[in-house]
C-alpha cells in the first residue's frame, strides 16, 4: 500500500472502493468482504499489531515502506475514537526489499495462545485459492489488472518455528505448502516455435524422473487435416477423416497454436503420509484438494469457465476412468511412451488404468491468445482463439492440439505413477527375498555348527534346506527371465497368422480331393493337380512347424549367446520363402557370412527379423504398380553395435500411422485384406519388437531417409556386448 492507500482505504471503515473495484490492482485477486472492518479483527489475537507495507511507484519505480503500530489497549481505553492517533512512518527503501504487506501480532491474548499452529493453518486453508500456489508462466501479459507474473499468495508465520520459510529464507503460503506436497507433478511448456519441454517430478525423488525436449511437429505431422481428410473411395469416419484414426479424439490438429503454453499439473492421490510434513490436518487438506481440483485453461490470466469447473471433464479423464480405458488417448503419449501388449493386457501393469481422477488433480494450462493480424486472416484458420464470451476456445485444429498436449500431461502422471509403484513393489519383493535367503543361509550355518543335534538327522535337514536354497535361487532367476521370455513368445503371433492361412488352404484342397479319392483316386486325372498342391502345402507347413519348434525351444530359455547373423537371417527367409515366391517378391540378403550377430537371445533376434520381413511382405502384397517387389536386408557392425536394415518397395506407411505402428493391437486396413496371406496377424508385431529391443538396450526405428529405390525401411540397433 502507498501512504495514500493507507490513509484513505485502510484507515477508513466501510470504504466504497470495493463496490467499484472487485479485483486487486496488482494480482487481480477477487476482493473479499464489503464493510471494511475485517482488518481490525487482529486485535482479538494480540494487543500490538504492526503493519509493514512496501509499495512501488509505477512511474518512478521508487519503493517506499510504511510502518504503522496499533496499540489496541491504548486505542480501546480512549473514550473517543476521533482522538485516537495511529503513529506511522514512511521511508524510501532499496528495490531489493520485497513488495507486499505484513501484519506482525504480538502481546498475544490468552485465547490466541491456546490455538495450535496446525489448527490455524487448517482453518486458513479453507480460504485459499490453489492458483496462487501454482507456478505461473513467464509469458504472463502485463494488463491493467496484472502488473507482475507471480502472485505470492499469503502466509502465516509463527515465531520460533524453523520450518516456516524455504531454503531461500522466503515464507511459503499455506496453499503453496499443500501444493508442494504433491505425489507427482508435470511441468510442461511449448514455445511459439513448437518446442515442447517437460519435466516429471515425484515425491521421494531428488531429481526429475523425466526431462525431455521435443519438436511437436515430429509427432503431429501425420494428424493434420491435409493428411487425414478422406479421399474418394476411402473409408471414412463421421468426421470425414480416414477410418484408421476413428478411435482418436479431437482430430485433425493444426501444425501450430500461435500461442505459448505453460502447464503446471499436480497429482494428489489419497495415500498415507502425503501431508505429514505440511502442518495441517491431512483429512482437511485432502478435502481441500477435492474441492479445489481442476485443470483449467487460463488465457492471459483469465480462467475460462468451460474448463475451470470440476464437473466439466473437458479432457475426458473421468470418462476414461469410468470405462476402464486401456489405451492412451493423447497422440503424444503412445509416440513417447508406447505400451507393450503384455502390460496393456495386465490390469496390474497397464498405466492407463492408473490415470488419476479429476478430483486428484490441481493444475492450470496457461495460454496467451492474441488477435490474428489482418494479413494472416485467410491463412490462419486454426489460430487458437477464444469465443466471443471468452468462456471457451473455438473448436478448431489449434484447440485439438492444445487438448492433446494437456491430456499428455495427465497421462504422463499415469505412466510414471504405475512405473514408480511397480518399481517399489519389485524392490520390496527383492528385499523380502534377500531377507528370506539370508535367514535360510543363517539357519543352515547354525545347523552345521551345532554339536547337540543327531548327526544323521542334522545331515538330512541340512540337505533339505540347501535344496530349498537352490530352488529359491532358481526361482529368482526364472522371474528375471520369464517376462523377456513371454514377450519373445508373443512375437509368434505373426507365425500363427502364417500357419492359420496355410492350414486353411491345405484343408480346402484336401476337401476337394476327398470326393474324387473316394471314387477312384488313381484313375481320376482331376485329382492330380490337387494332390500336388496338397504335397506342396504340406512341405510349407512342415517348414513352419520345424521353425516353430526351434523358436519355442530357444524362447523358453532366453540366454544371450554369440552367433553369425547371416545364418539366422537366412533361416528366417527360408521359412518365409514360399509366401515371397507366391507373390513374386524378391528378397536380397547382403550380410557377410562371418559377421557376428549381437549378444542377445537367438530367439529374440529371429523374432525381430521375422516380424520386420513379414511387415515388408504385407506392404508388398497389395502393391498394384508394375515396379519390382523387393525386400533388401543388410547388416554391419559399427563400433559396439550390430546394425541391421530391412527395406521394401511396398505401399509405404502414411504419415498419420508413423507413430501408431508401435501401438499394440494396431493394424492397418491392408492387414485385414482377405487376399493378404499375412492378414490374420494379431497386430502385436512392432509393439512387441519395440519392447523386446528396448529391454536388450537396443533401438528399432522407422527411418526418415530410406535407401534409394525403396519406400520404407526399419533400422535395428543391438549391442554386440552383453547387455541382458
Q: Can you describe this structure?
A:
The chain folds into four domains: 3-114, no CATH class; 184-422, no CATH class; 426-471; 484-719, Heat Shock Protein 90 (2-Layer Sandwich), CATH 3.30.565. Helix content is 38%, strand content 16%. It has 20 helices and 18 strands. The strands form four sheets. Strands 7-6-5-8-11-9-10 form a seven-stranded mixed sheet. Strands 13-15-16-18-17 form a five-stranded mixed sheet. Strand 9 and strand 10 form a beta hairpin. The radius of gyration is 35 Å and the shape is flat. Residues 141-149, 164-171, 669-674 and 677-684 have low confidence and may be disordered.
Kindly summarize this structure in a few lines.
Helix content is 38%, strand content 16%. The protein has 20 helices and 18 strands.
Specify the oligomeric state: single chain
Please work out how many helical segments DSSP would assign. Answer: 20
Mean pLDDT: 79
Number of domains: 4
Rg on CA atoms, Å: 35 Å
Summarize the main sheet: 7 strands, mixed
Main sheet strand line-up: 7-6-5-8-11-9-10
Gap between N and C termini:
66 Å
